Structure formats: C-alpha cells, structure tokens
Amino acid sequence: MQIALINGSPKYKNSASEVILEDLEECLKKNPNIKVTHFSFLKPQIDQKDIKSLFSCNCWVFAFPLYVDGIPSHLLNCMIQLEKYIGAHPNVPKTIHVYGISNSGFHEGKQNIIAIEILKNWCIKSGLIWGQGLGVGAGGMLAGLKKVPLGHGPKKNLGKAFEPFVSNIVHRKSEEIIVTSANFPRLAYKIAAEFGWRKQIKANGLKRKDIFRKCN
Q1: Topology (CATH level 3) of domain 2-184
Q2: What's the rounded Cα separation, in Å, for the pair 153 and 72?
Q3: How many angstroms separate the Cα of 182 from the Cα of each of 27, 142, 154?
Q4: In the 3-class helix/strand/coil scheme, how is the chain assigned residue by residue?
Q5: Is 69 in contact with 111 (CB distance < 8 Å)?
Q6: Please, what is the end-to-end C-alpha distance for the chain in angstroms?
Q7: Predicted pLDDT at 129
Q8: 113 Cβ partners below 8 Å, 6+ apart?
C-alpha cells in the first residue's frame, strides 16, 4: 500500500508537522507492505507532477498547523486545486482514504477539532473517503523534541494516540477524532511560550510594551 505523507506547514524546515510525520513514518515502516511518499505543500499551488503522484497513493495523511482555529490559507488553496482536479478528471480513483493531523500552539488538543472537521468536509465534498483526524496540543514544543523517541517523555501521549491512528491508516478504517497533548504541565508550557515571545521581541529590536502599541 502506498501512503502519501503531506506536510502542510508553510515552514521550510523544523516545523511541528515535520516532526509528527517523521514519527508517523517510523510507525508505518514497521509494516513491510507499506511504502511512503513525502509531499511538501509550502506554496498555495501544487505541481501537476505531484498531483499525479498523489493519485497513485491509497491514503493521504495531511499534517498541518492550526491557524485561527482553521487550516492555513496556502493549504486551503492546495485543497481547492485538488478538488477541481477531481471534478475535471472523473476517472481518478475515489477509493483514497484521507487522514489529518492538526497541531496547535494551544496546550489542549481539542482546539484542533474545527480544523479537522474542515478537512473532513472537504474530503467528503471531493468524493474521497474520510478516515480519521488527530488533534495534537502543545505543538509549539514539538520542533524541539525531534530527538525524543515517540512514546517517551513529553511525547508519551502522542505515542499512545498514534497506536489506533496508525492501525486505522494501515487497515484503511474510518474512526472518530482523537485528541491528545504533550506530557508537560500546562502552566510550565505557558511560561515557556511567554519566554519565547519575549526573546523574539528582543531579537527584533523591540520592547515588551511595544506589542501593546496600537497602529494608526
């Protein structure tokens, strides 16, 4: 079975979506019958060559960051392009199963539910088969946990969530949304995030009070 792992992050490297897909690939590779192909949707348009390659796969797995409770605009444009392609090519396979992983900067994984529902609705409207969604909280720290093994430390809950999610992909099953978050205290996560913002403000030559300044 051929599985497309689609990175929907606009970042060229070191994104939470990249880390999630790398961990997912390691899980999928345990099955010798699985072949994985990587796609990066960095821009709001997909190459025709990549579109044709996508339709040679049995499953699509989207991984993307949460943007204002929704899907990033560049990824939405790619989805619209795929939907139009399906409409213009009635002979493309409609047996493709679609799965989605949304990660958010919020600590709670449930914050991703709306974005996953958007992906699900697009999938059904496009005539594809919806599989399952996974909402991952505390995505802001995942890029820094690249070397932490899945199922250990702060990624313990993610490892548990991957068990049924990966099984459903392999068996092309449809199930309800799963939500999870990092094994890291919410308060400590909030403090670390605020420290990160202050560091970025200083790096850009600004002061903390500047972020409260109104634009004319």
Answers
A1: Rossmann fold (3.40.50)
A2: 29
A3: 18, 9, 5
A4: CEEEEEECCCCCCCCHHHHHHHHHHHHHCCCCCCEEEEEECCCCCCCHHHHHHHCCCCEEEEEEECECCECCHHHHHHHHHHHHHHHHCCCCCCCCEEEEEEECCCCCHHHHHHHHHHHHHHHHHCCCEEEEEEEECCHHHHHHHCCCCCCCHHHHHHHHHHHHHHHHHHCCCCCCCEEECCCCCHHHHHHHHHHHHHHHHHHCCCCHHHHHCCCC
A5: yes
A6: 56
A7: 97
A8: 133, 135, 177, 179
Asked if 89 and 81 touch (Cβ cutoff 8 Å), the reply is no
Token readout for 75 is: 């990824």
Structure tokens at 20: 């999630």
Blockwise average pLDDT, block size 10, the chain, 216 residues: 96 92 96 96 94 96 95 97 94 93 92 97 97 93 86 93 97 97 75 61 70 59
**pLDDT of amino acid 12:** 86
